[in-house]
Amino acid sequence: MSHSPKKNNYKSPSNAHDDSATDNEEIPLNEDVEGAIAEFVPSKGLTSAEAVSLLEIHGRNELVDKKKPKWLIFCEQLWQPMPIMIWIAAITEAGIQNWPDCGILLAIQFINASLGYYEIVKAGDAVAALKKSLKPLATVKRDGKWSKIDATIVVPGDLVLLASGSAIPADCLVNEGVIEVDQAALTGESLPVTMYKGSSCKMGSNVVRGEVEGTVQYTGANTFFGKTASLLQGDDEISNFQKVLLNIVIVLVVISFLLSGIVFAYLLSKGAGFEESLSFTVVLIVASIPVAIEIVCTTTLALGSKELSKHGAIVTRLASIEDMA
């Protein structure tokens, strides 16, 4: 059951800070710091009961992947430019009652679809297994004690430790002190960004220097990283690899139909029977088009995905391997 996320507004009373004692590296609250929230109540840690309650409200601190049903993946293998050509050829053979050739074409169709389905599902299963093996941890203060827990159960209001070399588990506000954060994965900035009291550290970035305590502001899909990922998931744009492959298929189909049409006309002009000429032309069309080109490409990309997974890289879309190259 899903719950609507609640926004977390951290407001302090008028006496929330003391101007008399500040660290040499800290920026006073009355100064404007870019991206910093000047007034908020730093978390002192949650109890286990509070954490469980907030987890039910806000959900787990993870991004939900849109998984395509396996039956749909298999059906897509039967409805692509190359398979459509085989369907047309099989229907033509059935129309002239050439059942042996029709059966062969259908066998080729389903064998190719099964191979493509197997490679795509295998690559997806490898990605899922790799994600399970990469369980991020977060250092959180619960019930007055610091402990390392699964980062997916971090909730808004948690008090987390942001130390050098650690990944930021959620969108957090710096309580006190100064740290440097690498946000290259989010913004492309080559240099670390200095975060002061009240600055917002984004999920998906890493601490490169310093150690501070932070208050979790947003988790899961409500984080900056989560909102960006949700926008990308809705992008069904055809990849460069798919465009190239589609252009190759179109060129081959046009040339094949043109030459096969010439052969068909030639056979009729020489007195050959219509059914015999049509059957020969259909076989010629199928033979002249590399019907397994998509299977070969999918298998090659799946092997590349498996090799990348050995180095800790998660490939969620096979065509992205070619785009990256």
Main attributes?
325 residues, alpha+beta, six-stranded antiparallel β-sheet, three-stranded antiparallel β-sheet, 10 helices, 13% strand, elongated, disordered N terminus
3D architecture notes:
It is a single chain. By secondary structure, this protein is α+β, with helices and mostly antiparallel strands. It has 10 helices and 9 strands. The protein has a 6-stranded antiparallel β-sheet, with no helix packed on it. The protein has a 3-stranded antiparallel β-sheet with strand order 6-5-8, with no helix packed on it. Helix 3 (81-95) packs antiparallel against helix 4 (99-133). The longest helix is centred in the middle third of the chain and has 35 residues, at 99-133. The two termini are 41 Å apart. 26% of the residues are buried.
Gist?
With 325 residues, the protein is α+β, with helices and mostly antiparallel strands. Helix content is 46%, strand content 13%.
Structural class: alpha+beta
Total number of strands: 9
Using only C-alpha atoms, the radius of gyration works out to: 29 Å
Sheet bearing the most strands, described? Answer: 6 strands, antiparallel
How far do the termini sit from each other? 41 Å
Approximate helicity band: 40-55%
Low-confidence stretches: 1-33
Q: Mean pLDDT, as a whole number?
A: 78
Percent in strands: 5-15%
Strand order of the largest sheet: 2-1-3-9-4-7
